[in-house]
Design brief:
By secondary structure, the protein is α+β, with helices and mostly antiparallel strands. The chain has one domain (44-375). 45% of the residues lie in helices and 14% in strands. It is built from 13 helices and twelve strands. The strands form three sheets. Strands 3, 4, 6, 7 and 8 form a five-stranded mixed sheet that branches. Strands 5, 9, 10, 11 and 12 form a five-stranded antiparallel sheet that branches. Helix 4 (68-83) crosses helix 10 (251-260), helix 10 (251-260) packs antiparallel against helix 11 (265-275) and helix 10 (251-260) crosses helix 12 (303-312). The N and C termini lie far apart (54 Å).
């Protein structure tokens, strides 16, 4: 039976994966039957949803590591920027551009809190399609991201082989508004154009350069190690893990850096509107928690969010003789020398510089998941 299914299936990841998934499917509920939170055990779906929401609300809070003077300067500049009257809105989006973005939406994705599936946009008639384009252009002109598109529906999936009643063993997935996701693609297109025209991202950022990937970043590091090993040189590296990187990104810090990168004021305001007043509700067995606000962070799972986070840490300091191999929220400084003592001193100097920079921008390193490697 399985052989017949495979024989009649198109040889693509989309065709084969459902069959593999059915073969590997394990029995048991997807949602935890009981949740152990800060206030004890919860059994009712509504109570479980709110217990998970309480935990996530704390998670979406920025770290406070920088000094107050720096924080005040950043907040004051951002506030002044948001209050300016801008006469140079971003370029208008055309219906043909919207159509291309709609065609790029994946039909298999679950719908958000609005209940509109991606496939619905594929079948829009001409009149509502024109109205949607006009709506997007009005949002661009006003530098406004509607609040109804910001509310996320959060579902949970248990991590494999973990006790699912503990919150740390649950993986959260945010389901976003379909229309909002489409407008985010519009913002990403404008943002990417600005980045490409001014070559803003460091060359070491492989994630957002064409024809580069995480694999190529690993190959680059391995090639560096091998080449210097053949020349009787040793390499040392530290793999830094940023704690809750996407959940704790400082909004004002990101907008401050956007203005420093000479973004159009209207685009910076639009990014600010996209990030501000974001809310989420946790869904458990059909029951929804009360709405909670996200005080920090960028929504996970979006290319736009990855791009914004990359811009946020793009100006990480590089000291002489220390290279960086970043990808997404992982950063790997490394250095090479013929003497172990020189390697340690160079790497320590680079890490000290980065530590000061991390604190300045409210970025916290997870020491438990950070480790070093010395290749003799």
């Amino acid at each position: 039976m399985v052989g017949n299914k495979i024989g009649n299936t198109e040889v693509t990841p989309q065709g084969i994966w459902p069959i593999v998934k059915s073969l590997l499917k394990r029995d048991g509920p997807r949602a935890p039957t009981v949740v152990h939170g800060a206030s004890g055990l919860k059994f009712h779906p509504f109570e479980k949803a709110n217990e998970i929401a309480d935990c996530l609300e704390i998670q979406f809070t920025p770290h406070v590591l920088c000094d107050k003077n720096h924080e005040w300067q950043v907040e004051a500049r951002v506030q002044a920027l948001l209050e300016t009257i801008d006469d140079n809105p971003p370029q208008r989006i055309r219906p043909c551009d919207i159509q291309k973005l709609i065609n790029s939406l994946k039909l298999q994705k679950a719908c958000g809190i609005d209940g509109i599936p991606n496939e619905c946009l594929r079948h829009l008639a001409r009149r509502p399609f024109v109205h949607l384009t006009q709506l997007f252009n009005h949002c661009l002109r006003l530098s406004h991201f509607p609040n109804t598109w910001k509310e996320a529906k959060v579902i949970t999936l248990p991590k494999p082989s973990k006790d699912r009643k503990f919150l740390q063993n649950l993986r959260t997935i945010s389901l976003l508004s379909t229309t909002g996701k489409l407008f985010k693609k519009v913002i990403l297109k404008l943002l990417q154009k600005h980045i490409d025209e001014r070559d803003l991202l460091s060359a070491s950022w492989f994630e957002f350069h064409a024809c580069r990937s995480m694999t190529l970043q690993c190959v680059r590091l391995a090639d560096h190690v091998t080449l210097n090993f053949n020349n009787k040189m040793s390499t040392s590296t530290v793999f830094l893990d940023i704690e809750k990187a996407f959940d704790t990104t400082w909004h004002s810090g990101l907008l401050y850096k956007s203005s420093k990168l000479q973004f159009l004021n209207s685009l910076t305001k639009l990014i600010g509107s996209f990030l501000s007043q974001r809310k989420f509700r946790v869904s458990v067995e059909g029951e929804m928690s009360t709405p909670r606000e996200m005080q920090s962070g960028v929504p996970q799972g979006l290319v736009l969010s990855h791009t914004l986070f990359s811009l946020y840490i793009n100006d990480a300091p590089q000291t002489h003789g220390v290279h960086l191999a970043p990808f997404a929220d992982d950063t790997c400084p490394y250095t090479t020398d013929g003497k172990e003592g020189f390697i340690v001193r160079k790497l320590q100097r680079g890490l000290s510089s980065m530590e000061t920079w991390f604190e300045r921008w409210n970025i916290k390193i997870n020491e438990d998941k950070t480790w070093g490697l010395f290749l003799l």
